[in-house]
Amino acid sequence: MMSGEGEEKVVCVTGASGFVASWLVKLLLQRGYTVKATVRDPNSPKTEHLRELDGAKERLHLFKANLLEEGSFDSAVDGCDGVFHTASPVIFLSDNPQADIVDPAVMGTLNVLRSCAKVHSIKRVVLTSSIGAMLLNETPMTPDVVIDETWFSNPVLCKENKEWYSLAKTLAEEAAWKFAKENGIDLVAIHPGTVIGPFFQPILNFGAEVILNLINGDQSFAFPYVFVEIRDVVYAHIRALEVPKASGRYLLAGSVAQHSDILKFLHEHYPTLLRSGKLEEKYQPTIKVSQERAKSLGINFTPWEVGVRGCIESLMEKGFLS
């Protein structure tokens, strides 16, 4: 497998205008990689932040690709040493979840892998999955239970609970492992919790929406937040490609934060931003997450407070908060 930094190495990043992928492109360029990045429309204003990155003029090439179109990733992955498949809809509610969420995730993953199977230079594919592909199963969430890489979400439970994003991620990962095994592809899957931190893409990412909603007084979410800072996520992706012995699944869970912890932090550091003056204590179950495998990649997790602060600064800079 690839070792060392990316001098003269070529990689593909799918869905490059997204939050994680934008940071991934940025750090790959910093490390000397040539990046072939897929987006829905290379001429869209949503790609300008990528063109402005250091090294982009020399080593970033944008490709038009459609998750639902077989063969549309062929030219982007051709000649690559590694591929990061991050493209997938981050949508939670839909009138047609199969068409809007599940199909693009599953068929998109298979279309990318089909393109990769044609290219002999590709040494590894890194799939961006989610903690959502782990959490929804029959295991009771008691304080002594530790969530780790042996956990798989149950598609039946996902459907029953209308957890369409988790369903999509679960089925996409399942399809990816099956295809990789049948076609001899070296696959690694990354499973981040809620990713927070500074952002430079123009569209709000899910983690930023979570923080913005909390600031605006939305207290409907009654489960602990499993946060992970964006740079930890991106570094884990790069390590998953560069470390020869990396394999299997990696859960990225920097810290578990209770609703009340986050509100206290906001109250102390950003009191003028909070729309609701009162702090409501909410009961939330305590959960534990394993960091062992992630640490074996060399990941030292950043405290959630740093991620929240970075996120808020970006929200203010971009005019989402005043």
TrEMBL record:
<dbReference type="InterPro" id="IPR001509">
    <property type="entry name" value="Epimerase_deHydtase"/>
</dbReference>
<dbReference type="GO" id="GO:0016616">
    <property type="term" value="F:oxidoreductase activity, acting on the CH-OH group of donors, NAD or NADP as acceptor"/>
</dbReference>
<dbReference type="Pfam" id="PF01370">
    <property type="entry name" value="Epimerase"/>
</dbReference>
<dbReference type="InterPro" id="IPR050425">
    <property type="entry name" value="NAD(P)_dehydrat-like"/>
</dbReference>
<comment type="similarity">
    <text>Belongs to the NAD(P)-dependent epimerase/dehydratase family. Dihydroflavonol-4-reductase subfamily.</text>
</comment>
<dbReference type="InterPro" id="IPR036291">
    <property type="entry name" value="NAD(P)-bd_dom_sf"/>
</dbReference>
<keyword id="KW-0560">Oxidoreductase</keyword>
<protein>
    <recommendedName>
        <fullName>NAD-dependent epimerase/dehydratase domain-containing protein</fullName>
    </recommendedName>
</protein>
<feature type="domain" description="NAD-dependent epimerase/dehydratase">
    <location>
        <begin position="11"/>
        <end position="246"/>
    </location>
</feature>
<keyword id="KW-0521">NADP</keyword>
